[in-house]
Structures are given as structure tokens and as C-alpha cells.
Amino acid sequence: MNDVTEVPLDIPAHVAAVSTGSCGAVVTFIGQVRDHDPDAAGQVTGLDYSAHPDAGRILAGIADRFRTEFPQVNLAVSHRIGHLDVGDLALVAAAASAHRGVAFDACERLVEAVKAEVPIWKKQYEVDGSHAWVGLA
Length: 137
Fold this sequence. Notes:
alpha+beta, 8 strands
């Protein structure tokens, strides 16, 4: 379960994908669309996420890289694309291990890598109907 998808993200499915009887710690990260942005003039009403055609392959590669770096941690991560309203889930990551420290570390580093490396862009809509592309380098 490492995917870039238009389908709503399923937190229990991510947890199930990483949980085993030997895991005493399951850590999740849930990124959801918020109603504000420091660069927005007004309230945010939603986002359109679009992705490069290779985004899914790149995300899966990042997950594989972290599985190699953290062999004692089970990992799952997905990013949603398409139109998302405030409150919709944009990114879900789960990490499970025998102990919490390594699970927290792996989950945090996985999320940071996905946000930094996967070519996904967002168009942000505001309450007045205006919009802007954000997060472009």
C-alpha cells in the first residue's frame, strides 16, 4: 500500500497493512486539508492536487528506500490527488515496529521525504473564488 490515488484514503487499511503480532507500536501521520494558509488572503475552501505521471513510482521508491533503512519497521504511505475539500485526507502514512522510537522516527522521515521528493502540486482555492498554485519551487 504505497500509492498516489484519486480514491479517498483509508486510515484503517494503512494501519492493517503495517500491523503484525510482533509490533507493539503503530504510528500514523494524517495530513488533511486545512481552512487557512499563511500566504492566502482569505479562508481556504479546498485544494486540487495534481501529480506527475511518475509520482506513484517515486512514492513507492521512497517507501522501499525507507524499508531498507528501517528493516525492523513496516511502512505504508499514500497521497491523494484530485479535488479535496477542507477536512479531506491528503496524505496518510503508517509505521509499525516492536518499539515506538524507531516507528516515530521512520514515520516522520517518510512523510518529510514524500513531501520533498514526490512531484505533486496543489492549486489552492479561497472563499472569494480566487485560486493560486502553492508550494512550487
